[in-house]
Each structure stands twice: as C-alpha cells, then as structure tokens.
Amino acid sequence: MSMHSTPSFTSVTDLAYGRDPELDAWLLHFMTENNIEYTVDPVNNASPEMLRFMVALGPDRIYTPCSDEMLRYLLDKNLESPLLDDYNTRWNTVRSLIDRFVTGSFAKKKIMSLCEYKIKQAMASPVLIPSRLMKRLNTIFLTQSGLDDPHRERKRVFNRRAGEFIADPFFDRALNYCIPENLNCRSMREMRFELDSLELRRLLCMSTWSEIWERDAYRPTADEMERKLDRAHGDFNKLREMIDPRAAGRLRILYLADASGGVLFDLLAVRTLLRLGHRVVMSLKEGFYFDAPTVWDADSDPVLAKALEGSYFLSDNRASKNELLKVMRENPFVIISDGTRERLNLHRVSVTFARAWKEADLVLAKGPLNYRRLMLTSHKFTRDVICFYRGRFDDLHLAFKPKAEGVRKFTEAEILGKAETIVAQMREARAAGRNVMFYSAIIGSIPHQTDMAIKILNGFIKYLREIMPGTFIVNPAEHFEEGLDGDDLMYMWEKVQRSGQIDVWRFQTHYDIEKSFELMGEKMTAIWAGKDSTYSTGCTKEMHIALSVQAKQPELQIIGPNPEKFFRRREYGIGKFFDAGIE
Fold it and tell me: pTM of this prediction?
C-alpha cells in the first residue's frame, strides 16, 4: 500500500489492524476523526469487549457504524455523489432547524457560520460518516441555541393524531377484521397464535404508515386500509416463526423504536408480543433526534404517558447484568435509553443498551435508518436481527439477518446452573466437616498478562491445597469456559459468593504472588512487583460483596489487603476481565 493509496476491501470485515502500518494509520485516523475510538475517548465510546456484546468481531477487527457502501465512499476520499448529497442533506436539515427555531439575527448568524465552518471542513477532507457530521452539527445547534428539544410539540402532535386514529372505531374494525379461510389452524391453540400473528403484522404495517400521524384527521378508505395491511413483504414468516412460543419458547426481545406517532402502534405491537408470553425491552433515544421518541417525552406528553402505562422505566444507563436481569424478570415490558442523540451507533450506546442486546434472543428494529445500519453492512451481530420498514412502493418490508455462526449465548439458566453446581460442591464439603475458602485474585487486570495471572493463581492454589488438606478451596480460574465474558462470570460468581457457604474469603496479596514465582522457580518480572488483588476492579467488586455478606454472616472471615485499598477504583470494565482504571 503506497502512501496515498486507498485500501481495497470486499467488505468491512476485511479491514483489520496489524497487517499494514499505513492501513492501521488510516483506520485510526478514520476512527478518531469520527470520535469513535475507545482508546482516545474511553468515557464516551464502547470498549472492544462491550462492542462484542453486540457485534461479532474477530481479533483486531473494527466496527464501523455505517453501510459498506458509505465506507467505500469515505475510503475513496472523493467528495462525489452520493457522499456529497448525504453531506448536503445533513446541512440542509440543520439549516432548517436554525431558520425555524433560532430567534435574533446575531445568534442565528453565529450558529449558521459555525456550522458552515464544520461542513466545509468535512467536505475538504471527507472522512466523517454523514450521521456523525449530523450529530456534530446538531450538538452545535442545541448548545448554542439553548434548546433541548425543538421537535417536542411536533412529536406531541404526531402522538395525538396516532392516538385519535387508534381511538376511532374504524381502527378497531380494521385491526380485528378476520378472514377465517386464511387461518391455517387445526386447534384452538393454533388459532390463537394465528390471530396474534395476524394482529402483529397489521400493527407493524400501521406503525410504519406515516400518513396516519403526519396528516391531520387522516382516514383511509376501507379498501385502502385492507390493501395496505395485506402488503407485507420480506421475511414476515421468519418473524412469525421466531415468535411462535410453541416452537421458540419465551423470547427476550429488544425492540428499537423509530418515530413519534408510529411509536403508539409499536406499543400495541409490544402488547401482542407480551400476550404471546415474550418479554420486551424497548429502546428510546436519550435526547433530541428529530422525530425519534425519547425517554423524556412521556413527561410532557399525556398521550404517550398513557400508552406507556404498565411499562417499567429503567433509568440507570449503566445497569449491571444482575440489575438488568432482575428488572427483566420482574417486569415483562421495560423501557431503556440507548444513551444517544443520533442514529443507531453501537460505539456510543449506553451500557444498559449493550447489556440488553446481549441478553436478548431477538433484536426487532424499525425504520429505514436502522435497516441501513444493521442490514446494509457486512458486519454480523451476536443476536438474530429483524428490521421492518416502509418500502419504496409503500408496502411493509421485513429483513432478517441471523446471528453470526459460532456465537455462543450463555442463558441465565445455564449460568445459574453452573453457579449451583459449585455451590453444591461447597455444601457437600461443609457437610463433610471441611472449611470452604473462596480465593479472589488478579486474572486479567494487567494487560497481556492473563495467561501468567492464571499460571500464578493455579500454582498458588495447588500450594494452598497441599498445606490445607482440610479446606475446600474454590479457584475461579478452574471454572472458566470459552464464551463466558467478564459480565457472565461476575454474575455467576456473585450467586456463588452470596450462597452462605463460604467460611473464609481470601484476597490475593503481594506475598501470594511472590510465593507463586518462588514455587514456579521463576524470577518475578517488574510488572508484577507490588501487585495484589486491589489492582483488580473485579476483586474490588467482590470486596463490596464480601463485606455485605459478612454484615449478614459475621462469622465469615475476610483475609487479605485492607478493604479501604480497594475502594479507590471504579466499577470493573464492561465485559472485561481487567480494570477500568483508578479515578
């Protein structure tokens, strides 16, 4: 690759670090200019481990939040259509916002000029993904104008119109009109599912029928309504097959909403899915993104608030796996924020959204923008994805992308089963008169030292077992299974740790590590000097658990570094085995 040549690729999955220094430089330039590089901005961007909750990424692969087609235009570095058209569309959209909502000629001129500088800069060196440019211009408009949601009233009007449509007896007749000869069923149970499936298809059709809320008092004729509802193309049969509880069981579905007005029909579709026994997490935007509904809209929109009755709002954007699963178990319908004010961008989504994706069985995404992001890319995802949207000829389209081959999802039941197996061993050991010790240690807290950390841990546990034959020692490194990530392991171990079966909880000390190197007959490398379990944020979380268990079971003995040394650290990295770092 010469200094100014463009890297050639068939799909984005061909792009990887470590093959060509110039390609690496270009990829880092692309990632940093779009402000989606984790190492440069770890506070706002998802870590590689968190991205792998959602995207099936191999070693050194990158995820780009755009279609393959758009990435090719950006790699070519030529400002030609459709990249130029895309940039101009974004600029015209923001210019319209400024004209409509900014009062005062001075403020309007200042904001317009600042945005012009940004758009000219983007066009001079076309590396910005158009949607990232849109986010940048949108942020300038919001911060400089002092507005938080210029479309709030517009969205309320859309929801009011959709609500009036739903309240009209015409809607009830259209939704519930039954054609018995079209129902392929041999039993009452099959008939119920056929009716629910037909209702869902009709609701998805209406949820993408924008005239319903964009036009005042819109009422199609009965014939038009029937034609619209019967024109569902694409893989609806795949969705129908997946939501059939007789075959697929009860699913966890992550539902990505799209636009106000249509969201009222989305909520009716969710009720149908709940009636089938599934559990649904619906994702809304964190803040203004044109007509997209946000988690704050219900505060000022009584129509939306009423439609959301019975749902549970999970307001914590950094919910732990344990907290999220608890909420999902107790509430069949949960509302979360995706953490962004932009088109779906998995680099920028909230921790809660990433975990909801990971825990889902199916991602159901609405609208052409989600279709572009999820279907018009070579990226494979960790969960089955179905996108539905209104097509060019005003009909409903559904597209299915199966999860990547080889992706293993450990279900909650499987993880709990592993935890219970360990607890049973601990219970059996105590019944035989042995003490139970749990050993918390560094495993992945030092970059590129995970294999050595496991070697140190296993060697020291072997030594402890030799000198403590009457003690049953739980070694976390002996229970790792390929496919389990840091979230899964922390969830599993917390169940073990709160079981009430631990007599001694030992945290790794610097002496333990020094002894391990002595036992291995090796010289301690500088990177391990002075290290102990306080250097692991996973161990830090476990110290919090140990102290809370001890408060209920005063006889629990905690040995190792002073607890205060642990609490200088943040929560363990999302999906990581290693540290988030010291604040």
Answer: 0.85
